Amino acid sequence: MCGILGQVTGAGSSNIAPDFIKTGLSELAHRGPDSSANSSAQVGENFVELGHRRLSIIGMGSIGFQPFHLGSITIVFNGEIYNFRELAKEELGFSRDSINSDTELIVMMWQKYGAGCVSKLRGMFAFAILDSSLGRIYLVRDSYGVKPLYHSFNGHCLRFSSEPKVLAAADKDIEPDLEMAACYLVKGKYDFSRRTFYSNVESQNPGTILEFDLSTANPELMAERQYRQLSKNSMKLSFEEAVQKVRSSFLTAVERNMVSDVPVSFALSGGIDSSSIVCAARYLNPKMEIEVFSYTPEDGTISEYEYVKSLAKEFDLKTNKVALGQQETLEVFEEFLTAQGEPVQSSRQLAQFMVFRAASRKGYKVMLEGQGADEVIAGYHGFAHFRIIDLLNRGNLVGAVKLVSGWVNSNPSYSLKLLLALLGQEVLKSGSAPSFIESWARRKFLNDNAMSLASNDLIKAAENAESANSHNEGGELAGSLFKRGLVEATTKTYLPQLLRQGDRNAMFHSVENRVPFLDEDLVNLVWSLPDNYLVSDRGVSKYIFREAMRGIVPDKILDRKDKVGFVTDAGLLPPKTEQIDSRWFESLGLASDDSLHTESSKWRRMSMRFWLRQFEDSN
After folding, report:
1. Given this model, what pLDDT does residue 570 score?
2. Which one of 75, 183, 286, 330 has the lowest number of neighbouring Cβ atoms within 10 Å?
């Protein structure tokens, strides 16, 4: 994994930042401390500069050095292509070991297939390809947006980078996007579309290729192509057949994610997702040394560490316990928000930050984690409200009642009150409910009064941002609201913000975080199965995955009915930030921080204050 950036300035550009590459490479040093390089080229009337920071993981030494040139093509690449050796043999006719870097593989595949090669890649990636013979530059992002890619474009100058703050530092016209700030503060929503917290800086849609023409006086956006198309076909498999396919696909995903020339580590909470990754690694590699890093709250009130200790004993794991208390929160709060470079949702992200820090301090460059499992295989609340609505729409009242009853019994960590809130949320989304109704629902069911404390102007600003185009999910799955709910959670509402935060947390410590549950083949398989394979008719979430892991993961883990994850100490909050002056923040016209009810809304307010002040200080 690495950090990439680039700048294309046209003949008519007045927005020239001559030190953009040099300054940007310095800003991205944490993403690639092993080496740094850049190159430039004149393509027609456009001047192209590319920069790369390298974290060496596959192909050590000079192998895979970037920017990489082959013929008329130059690439800067962030990420990993796990099937590069297989593609070298099957698509290019090389012996399995004759290509030693995935960077070289991408360029050779591009030479043979053009942009069509991207759909054959399995991994996580964001890259830019300059083809000087065609006068084109392409920006490419992986199917689910695991690797970040941001750009700013004003018609005369194109810039891109792995982090948006690099783009903001180069352009005095980029300011905080106050509509996005309002949406985040009032509704807790962000990272659901191209828009970022920076005006005129966009996050490239996952699964897309942007093509810019450089044969004209200025770079010109020719096309945005969606190369990832969700499967609209349902697989007709018996439950037993599907269990075997899911088991095999998941083991393949974990095996792919362990491809590395350096040792890999694992995040282990003790829950189903991270435990399945660790147990699968042991199943695949009985003699492998496995070191895990586990977060547990300092006060110990809510902890999964008993499951971690049990797994460690049974599977011979080397454990590392990471704790976070109020004092350490005060010490690392500013460092954490500086690493994020944008506001965050809650203290859970700070706990994750500490896990990556612990792994980095033990010398690890790679960590596998369970991110994406809840969205892909129907975790969290099991998306049961979608299944209930589907059943009611089909007139199956008995099935709906059965599922509600089973869901409440199978998910004791979620109450019937939450289920009603989720159902109500879908009803509100189906129409055009006034803001005061949504505000009442949030207070009633979620104890979140941030919306009721906002002015009408702020609510309107939030709604304007919310109505912006969401990430393009590459078409909708045929059939149920339930499946569409999984797609929405993966591409819009939940996962994009978690992936952004996870990437920043990991890369700040020069650690590559890998997410086996977002393996494209695994996702396509799971989403092609019947709804009741994912959430059973009795409301059991992750149903088929639990069954697929029998014999690999202990039953006491698979039969867990609670979900904890990165839960921090009760009342764990960052330092008071009302004393931080910010003209941008004051312009939002918010009520006092003390009037907020929830930990999440307080964190949002505090991190927004801090980020806006940081923006002012650095710009």
Report:
1. 47
2. 286
**pTM score:** 0.89
- Helix axes of 520-527 and 481-488: crossing angle, nearest 10 degrees: 160
- How far is it, in rounded angstroms, from Cα 169 to Cα 617? 11
Q: How confident is the model at residue 348 (pLDDT cuts 50, 70, 90)?
A: confident
Q: Which residues of 280-304 are buried (b: 16+ CB within 10 A; e: fewer)?
A: bbbbeeeeeebbbbbbbbbeeeebb
| Res 591 pLDDT > 60 | no
Q: What distances in angstroms separate CA 241 from CA 233, 238, 248, 258, one per listed residue?
A: 17, 5, 11, 26
CA distance 388 to 396: 9
- Cα 163 from Cα 41, distance rounded (Å): 23
Q: Determine the Cα angle at 171 with ends 166 and 177, to 5°.
A: 80
Distance CA 416, CA 410 (A): 12
How do residues 321-336 score in pLDDT, each as one tens digit? 998 777 777 788 889 9
At residue 433, what are phi and psi to the nearest 5 degrees? -65, 140
Cis bond before residue 496 (omega within 30° of 0): no
CA distance 380 to 485: 12
For residues 265 and 362, is the Cβ–Cβ distance under 8 A?
Answer: yes
Q: Could you tell me the two tokens for 589?
A: 């016209």
Q: Half-sphere exposure (CA, 13 Å, Cβ side) for 248?
A: 7
Return left, alpha or beta for 589; rule: phi > 0 is left, psi -120 to 50 is alpha, else beta: left
Distance in angstroms (rounded) separating the CA atoms of residues 544 and 221:
44
Could you report the per-residue pLDDT of 375-411, keeping only the tens digit for each? 999 887 657 778 888 888 888 888 888 888 877 776 5
Model pLDDT, residue 392: 82
Residue 474 in this model has a pLDDT that exceeds 50? no
Q: Which helix (H) or strand (E) holds 595?
A: none
* H helix intervals, 288-325: 305-315
Supply the DSSP string of 510-563, one letter for each residue.
T-EEE-GGG-HHHHHHHHTS-HHHHS-TT--TTHHHHHHTBTTB-HHHHT----
Strands of the sheet with 264-267, listed across from one edge: 317-322, 290-295, 264-267, 366-368, 512-514
Quote the percentage of the chain above a pLDDT of 70. Answer: 79
CA dist 222 and 429 (Å) reads 35
Closest CA to 601 of 344, 380, 388, 349: 344
Per-residue burial over 187-203, b = 16 or more CB atoms within 10 Å of its CB, e = otherwise: bbbbbbbbbbbbbbbbb
**501 in Cβ contact with 349 (< 8 Å):** yes
The one-letter amino acid at 466: E
C-alpha dihedral, 90 to 91 to 93 to 96, nearest 10°: -50
64's CB contacts (< 8 A; 6+ apart) are: 54, 56, 58, 100, 101, 102, 103, 104
Kind plus residue range of the DSSP H or E element containing 110: helix 102-113
